[in-house]
Predict the structure.
Amino acid sequence: MVDTGLAPLAVAQIVVQLGAAFLAWKITRYTDGIRAWGFIIIALLLMTLRRVTALLLMFGLMPEIEAISIVDKLALPLIISVLMLLGMWDLLGMFTKKYGGK
């Protein structure tokens, strides 16, 4: 049986995550770090994909396939972490170049 009480929370997570990706995209207009923000935006969208997958699984709208589970639990978190690291690394370089580093 599906716990539909969790559905609003799951939907809210998706909306908030999409909002974060949208704001990151808006920030690219004001900074030179388009590559850095691109990494971060892709990571945020992959996080959203994970939340959508969880919601679909919660309602039985997507079959539980072992390969999808492995990708969702192992590969995607690693990819997201690497993208966030690359984005932060790029931003650090951008800020160091602009403001000087210690």
